[in-house]
Amino acid sequence: MPRAGKYLPERTCVACRKPAAKSELVRLVRCSDQNLVVDAGGRLPGRGAYVCRSGQCLASGVRSGQLERALRIKLDDAARQALCGPANKEVSC
Ligand SMILES: [Zn+2]
Q: Residue 13 carries which DSSP code?
């Protein structure tokens, strides 16, 4: 273990509730009432939630509704499929 000299900001994955460094998580941002985008650069404005990079937590967070609760949005089926899809393609506003 390296010495904890530097402060590393930690965020909690909304699906598995495990804290991890920001660099190990994907940020999702609510960019309008019903739109969710993957914030690849980590600098989009708006309410954000974090999930693990694996993609599994994104899918389970969407499926279980945890992501919607965290961001206070309601995703429709198309949006859910876009987020849960195996291709994990870019979602845009
Ligand atoms: Zn997770």
A: B
Q: Would 92 be classed as within a structural domain? A: no
pTM comes to 0.77
pLDDT at position 3, please?
64
Report how far ligand 1's centroid is from the alpha carbon of 21 (Å).
12
Rounded distance from Cα 20 to ligand 1 centre (Å): 9
Q: What does 36-89 look like in DSSP terms, one character per residue?
A: EEEETTS---SEEEEEETTSHHHHHHHHHTHHHHHHT----HHHHHHHHSTT--
Structural domain count of the chain: 1
- Cα 22 to middle of ligand 1, angstroms: 12
